[in-house]
């Protein structure tokens, strides 16, 4: 249930094509539904503009399928993040509706094949290295499923800045940028110095020993001298896409 669906329901009641009792029945799933091992938030899209998303790790295929079908019965599109291909196949086999799956992003979804563009501008997803792409792919895929136009740049890190500068039109044309980097995490500061748009920095766990699993990149991004840079957690491509979507719809 989201704002558009509630508004349409209220218009039906006002027009007399739907009785108040029928409208009440449709709203009966709000604000959550209890299933065997979860309390599914069917009200989140109405409150926050975007529906609940299922985090895949730690859940069985049966649990994921049950939560997904509960959200679908509430009329919502569904995303499942960080889900490996074999688990995605098992979930699909348990559901009457065939889901879509992006192996690079490890993202499974239930909903239309194509999502209408709702964002006011484009989101640029910029990956410092090819090794950072799995996290960047998650950000790009989630942003697309949320109705954003997405541009991607891969392998444009600070070891060869000419590669980044060659795509300055993409950078400067974006309304929001998601910049994904491991190692020392310098790329978001560089990008932040080139554009006037918000930059959401995503540190990754890519790097040798002193990168400390992404902690070095995280601290570097948090101490960025570019004042338009904000930071999400290590490897959190989903979180970056969520915030970027809210900015792009504002």
Structure commentary:
Strand 5 and strand 6 form a beta hairpin. The protein contains 11 helices and 11 strands. The strands form 3 sheets. It has a 5-stranded parallel sheet with strand order 8-7-9-10-11. A 4-stranded mixed sheet has the order 3-4-6-5, with helices on both faces. Strands 1-2 form a two-stranded antiparallel ribbon. By secondary structure, it is α/β, with parallel strands linked by helices.
Uncertain runs: none
Question: SSE order in H/E notation?
Answer: HHEEHEHEHEEEHEHHEHEHEH
Lateral arrangement of strands in the main beta sheet: 8-7-9-10-11
Largest pleated sheet: 5 strands, parallel
CATH class term of the largest domain: Alpha Beta
**CATH-scheme architecture of the largest domain:** 3-Layer(aba) Sandwich
Percentage of residues in strands? 15-25%
Helix content: 25-40%
Number of domains: 2
Radius of gyration: 20 Å
What's the count of strands?
A: 11
> Would you tell me which CATH topology of the largest domain applies?
Rossmann fold
**N-to-C terminal Cα separation, in Å?**
20 Å
Mean pLDDT: 90
Find the structural class using helix and strand composition: alpha/beta
With helices defined by DSSP (H or I, 4 residues minimum), what is the helix count?
11
Large-scale geometry: globular
Compact description:
With 250 residues, the chain is of the alpha/beta class.
Please name the defining characteristics of this protein.
250 residues, alpha/beta, Rossmann fold, 2 domains, five-stranded parallel sheet, four-stranded mixed sheet, 11 helices, 11 strands, globular
């Amino acid at each position: 249930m989201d704002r558009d669906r509630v508004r349409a329901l209220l218009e039906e009641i006002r027009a007399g094509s739907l009785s108040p009792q029928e409208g009440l029945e449709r709203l009966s799933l709000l604000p959550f539904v209890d299933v065997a091992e979860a309390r599914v938030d069917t009200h989140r899209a109405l409150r926050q503009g975007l529906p609940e998303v299922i985090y895949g790790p730690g859940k069985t295929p049966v649990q994921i399928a049950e939560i997904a079908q509960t959200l679908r019965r509430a009329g919502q599109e569904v995303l499942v993040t960080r889900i490996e291909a074999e688990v995605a196949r098992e979930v699909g086999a348990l559901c009457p509706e065939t889901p879509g799956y992006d192996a690079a992003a490890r993202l499974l979804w239930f909903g239309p094949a194509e999502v209408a563009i709702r964002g006011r501008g484009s989101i640029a997803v910029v990956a410092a290295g090819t090794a950072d792409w799995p996290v960047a792919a998650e950000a790009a895929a989630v942003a697309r499923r949320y109705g954003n136009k997405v541009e991607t740049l891969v392998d444009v890190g600070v070891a060869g800045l000419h590669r980044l500068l060659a795509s300055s039109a993409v950078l400067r044309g974006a309304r929001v940028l998601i910049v994904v980097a491991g190692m020392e995490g310098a790329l978001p500061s560089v990008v932040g110095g080139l554009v006037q748009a918000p930059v959401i920095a995503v540190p990754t766990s890519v790097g040798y020993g002193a990168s400390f699993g992404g902690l070095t990149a995280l601290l570097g991004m948090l101490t960025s001298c570019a004042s338009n840079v904000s930071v999400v957690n290590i490897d959190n491509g989903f979180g970056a896409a969520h915030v970027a979507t809210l900015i792009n719809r504002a």
